[in-house]
Amino acid sequence: MSDLTGFIGSAASDESEPQPKAGGRIHKVTKLDIRFEVPGVDSKRIYANGRMQARVWVLVEAQDEDGNPVKLPYFPDLMSARLIQYHNGKPLETNVYLGKPLAGWNSSTTENRYSHAMPGGLPFGPVSEPLSAAQNEPLVFWVSASEVAQAQIAVEVTLQGKVYRSNNTTNPDGRKINKSIIIQAEKKVTYGVEQFRWSLEETKVGSATDTLFLYHLGLYPGATQIKLLSWESAKYNELNRYPIDFYRAVPRSAAWAIKYLAGVFPSSAHNSIRVNMPGGQYDIKVHHRSGELSLVKGVANRSAGFIGERRDLFPFTVIDEYGNDHNLSISVDEHNLKFALQRG
Predict the structure, then answer these.
(1) Residue 262, domain extent
(2) Most exposed: 20, 58, 92, 209, by fewest CB within 10 Å?
């Protein structure tokens, strides 16, 4: 999703400015720059969780033997680029985020779903300086880290077989280019369980036999909401399939009429779930509160027959909008028919 719409200004219409030639023979590199999308910003902060990304721009300009700008499409036979460590030239890893944290310092051309600005930071906005007709569009990288550290990052490009670097080392034309950015990867934030909101809502779905509830989970440190995007659990889930029936038993309850208690943990990727109860099957909408996730509690005054009881503590991991993961668990107070949230 490296779409630059909204971040790149329109090309200038001054016809006196030399127009770049597509695929021309490169005589020399006139510009090699690495920067963030906002001019004047030379450092950024991210969480060291292997998910949160900082967007980095690389701009390259070249001329042919007649001094005309050369259009540089980004494909290997003309130009390739990668980000490198400034001090030793070692390239960053180039893995794509596929749902699991990426190890080390990683540079991807694919944007993921997590916020790119730290809490309280400025969101992305339009770039104040438009690109001229002679400039090539930026090549966009997304940098993440899984270690708490600071990295000074430069760029390496290969143009028609010649390698140019911006880490102040000598390039094929004898010049040195000293351009870099700094990314500070910080320790993820850990919140006390009291900063998570755990609220109960009775649904309008059910029958004379079955009553169904939703428990909503939100994160509200102070007066600010941090949105929860997904959750996962390996408990009772060897095949990684959802929903998970994490609790099912005849409760040891003071409410003698209750013959069955169920807890169902849905996928965070779907907004509805089908729940099996002694009185039938019910389709329930989940995750309908913005930035919150929800699971189902069902109680019935009729036995479910042989069900294979599950009464254990249920651990799970929830991931917030910044890519930070939080380990939590659910214990069941059978006497009062309540699900309690606690640290995992």
Answers:
(1) 193-343
(2) 209
